[in-house]
Every structure is written in C-alpha cells, then in structure tokens.
User: Fold Signal peptide peptidase SppA from Entomospira nematocerorum.
Amino acid sequence: MRIIHHFILTIRQALSNVIFVITLVLLAILSQYIIAILRYEQPSLPQQFVVYLDPHHVYESINPNTTPPAIFSKNQRPHTLSGHQIRTMIHQASADTRVTALWIDFSNFLPSGWAVVEEIYDALLVFKASGKPIYAFSESYNKPRYMLASIADEIWIDPMGSLEINGFSSSEIFINDALKNLGIEANVIKAGLYKSATESFERNSRSNYNTEMTQSFLSSIWNYYSQIVTTGRLSQGDTNQEELLTSTIRMSLLKEPTVRYAKSVNIIDHIGSLHNALEITLPHLRFDAFGQVIGNNDGLVNYLDYSVEFNKNHKQRTLRNLLPGNTKPKIALIYASGNIVDGHAPWGTIGSASLIDKIQQAVNDQVDAIVLRLDTPGGSSFASEQIYRTLMQVREKNGIPIVISMGASAASGGYWISLAADEIVAHPTTLTGSIGVFTYFFTAENFANRWGINEDIIQVPDQYVHSTSLFKQPNELIVESLTASINAIYDEFLQRVVTAKRAANMTEANAIAQGRVYSGIQALDIGLIDYIGTLQLAIDRAADLASIESHFDIIEYFDNATFLDKFKASLFESSYIPLLEEKLQQLGLSLNIILRPRVEAYALETLRIR
Assistant:
C-alpha cells in the first residue's frame, strides 16, 4: 500500500509540475503578445497609393479578436471586415493624404443585409466629398452593388456581365393544401391583422392585409433606392434624366439585358474586363503573365492590408480600456443579431441571457452610454421582455443612456426591445414594426386516422389540463387559453409602445400596430423611430445624450461564440445553411422554431425582399 501511495503522490506531483510549466508558457506567450501589440510598428506602405476594395461576404459584425490571425499574430491582415469596419476604413482613407483614390471590385460582394449596404454607402459619400476619385467594377450588378457603384466617378462592367436593378419583389410559398393532403393541420393563434408570418401554412395565397402591407413596404424602399442611384449618377453629369430607372428603361433592360444598352442610357460608363479597367484607370500598374497586379510597389494596396493599421489601433484601444485609471469617456457598442430566444443561445441567435450578460458587462465597465446594434426579425416574446427589463433598469437605476441602432431588421420582438431605449435610429430600408404576436403548432389527427395511429391520453386530476397532442386537434378550452395568452402579450406590447411615448394611448398604439411591417422611412413618419441614419449617427446621439463633449473610446461587445463554433458554422455557412434558412423563411419557419419542441408565443416577422 505504501508503494501505491508513493506512486500516486509521484504522479500527482508530476502532473502539477506539467500544469505549472504550461501555465508559465501561456503567460509568457500572452505577455509577449500584449507587448507586441502595444509596440507594433505599422508595415511600410507607398507614399501615394490607391486602396483596392474587393469585399466578399460582409456581415454586420465580426469579432477581430476571435479568429486565429487575431489571436496568434500581431500583424497578419484579417480575412474579412464587417460592414462597420469597412465604413471606418473608408472614412480613414478619405482623410489619409497618402490615399489618392478608391478602386472597388463588387464582383463577389454579398452583404448580409441592406443595412450593411447603407453603412458603406454613407462612407463612400464622405470619401467622395474629399475630392478623391472612386472607380467601380463588377462582373455583374445587382441592386446592392449598383447602389454603391452609382456614386463612383466611373462605373465599369464586364462585357459578359448583366444588370438586375429593375425593382424589388417578395415571394412566399404556401403549403396549406399540401399539409391538408398529408393530413396535417396548422393551428394558428395570433393578434394583429397584418401578422403574416403564418399565412404560408394556413392559406393558399396572401391575405389582403399582407398584400397591402408588402406593396407599401416595397414601394417605400424602391422609391428610396431609385432616388439614391439617380442622385448618384446625376452628380457625375452623365444624364439629364430626372429619374434614371424609368419604366421605359427598366422594361428595355428586361427585353435587351445587354451591357451595351445599359451604357447607352448612362447606367454604366465603360465596358471592359477587370484587367482592362485597371489598366486604363491606373496606367502605372504592372501586371504579370496572368493579368495579376504585381505587389504593392505600384501604388495599389488591398483594403485588408490597409486595414491592418485600423485593427492595430483597435487592439491597442481594447487593451488600454482594460487598464485601471482610464478616465476617457467610453461608449459601449453591443452587437446582437439573429432570432431572439430564451437563455444562453448558440452563435447566430440572440439569447436573452447572453445579451443581458453583455449589457451587464458594459455596466460593470463603467461606460457612459450604450449603443445596441439590433439585427433581428424577432422571436420569443418572453426573451424580448427580459432584455427590455434589463435595458430599462440600466436607464433608470444606472442613469446610462441607451440608443438602438437598427440593422436590416428590428421587427416584432426586436421592436419590443427597442422600446426601452432613449432614442431609436434606423436605416431607410430597415424592416421594423410588426407589433403583434402569434403562436402555432401542427397536429396530424387526419394523418393518424388514415394510418391507424391511436393515442390514449390520461389527464389528472380532470379533463381541464392544458395539454396539446400531435395526433388530436386542440379542444376549445386549449384554444381559448392560448388566445387569451396571446391577447395578453399583445396588450402588453401595446402598453410598452405607449410607455415609450410612441403612441398617445392604447387605441392609437393598436392602430399603428396590428402586426404591420414598416420601412425605416415609414416608421419615422409615424413616430416609431427618432432618426434615419447609420450606426455612426446612433453613436453620436449616445454621446450627446451622455453629455460627452470630448473624444471618447468605443468598446465593442461581440457575440460569445468560440472559434470552434464559428469554424463548424463556416463549413456550411457559405452555401447550404443560408439557402435552407431562406427557403424555411418563405414558409414562415426557421431552424430555431423547428428545433424547439414546445409551443411558444413568437413575435417573428419573416418578410424577405430581393
């Protein structure tokens, strides 16, 4: 026994020594990393250069501190930038005397939503005002790409390219008959005449309310879009038309979808390959045998290389904000995107507990104001209420002003959360409102009868038990109970609208609610938001509300996903998952709802435009 005891002690001591050595090594690596960042020297760039921007997938937010390059390298350029980071980089380039022009290749540009497009567009306006030229190229143009290109001094397109800028559409697939043929019944209970997310499996076509709402919303963003691109092209003096995308031109684009016709009506300026465009606009460049630009010595710097300077400053600010004694004013910028769900949620969703943790962290960091960047179609009303209460407590008890910056959407549960803010800023095309509630579940009684499936339910103490069954239609008591619950949540939603002074009383709140979706422009007209603008405007408003007059730091709070979470998601993110989500949303579904077994009241809006 003594030998065994001695052996165990030896093993324990050895393991302790190993753990101690590993800890020392990790601390040494961490300290070297921090010192390297703080002493980091900017890589050499030409004295004069053109920034080359070729964005691919651009998302609302990307945590620069959770990717392998950010963790293990002090100077390696990032793999991609978020919309806000690209916007900041363009602002930096507009004031940088070394930068002579901006050259943009939109061929692979895939934004996560219109809010990203509008963030970048606002930055291009600033760059344009600096007097520096902007060159735009794309193999083909869709609406987001062309909106950004419209402000360029020269618009190029590949000879084999195409343009799809005719208008907006919203498509829904209805499976009500298919479900009935299978013996499946959709049981829907909702509050709000315009609440349309469940129509795909309870009807065979849009309701009149849905049609009216969708046409109004699409018309609002089309008017905005056509005005933007016309203004951009008129500023170049290329056309005298009061409107660039007239019905005649759009019809001709459908009948003759050639780049030559687009050039004849001044939608584009030049036809040529990427190599041709670079060669003509930047004649000093040198190309290799494959048509690729040789190095940075000729004055063409990729935006990811140029952004290293911004990322270095970001890392230094982050580290210095953590040091004690920092008295510089701080504004928290918290990103939240995805469906709203209960508890600590996985990456890509807004978990009430996860978001509340970030809000509490910002309070503990003694920030002077909070900007919450919301991009959500809605979700659980209970989770939305938990976040709402936390924000109200931060405002009232901690005295910290809160500004909501709406992204591509902040509807239903997203708007519920927004009602806790001092002010709300939205983009012109933001999908918001949808003040309504619904719940649904499927039953398959006819399917069970057809195939001989029987279910025997025992209820204790009596039949008045709130229980739903997959193979039986809900009884009248259950329907009445769920209806009362949904109506109570809807009334609570309306009360939140009145409390936030977005409506004078419950009657007025009900009139603008009813589950109706509004664009940012429409929401401003009826008082649901305070300003139309970008994320930067929301930050400026937060600084003003906090009476910050001097320079301030921005502390960003990203999602809590681990690198492994993002790696697993990236295996499918580029193709399968977004396609599956899009098809499910057309059916009024989402992966989160399908995978959740219990019935809940969801405030989810699934309208998608293209």
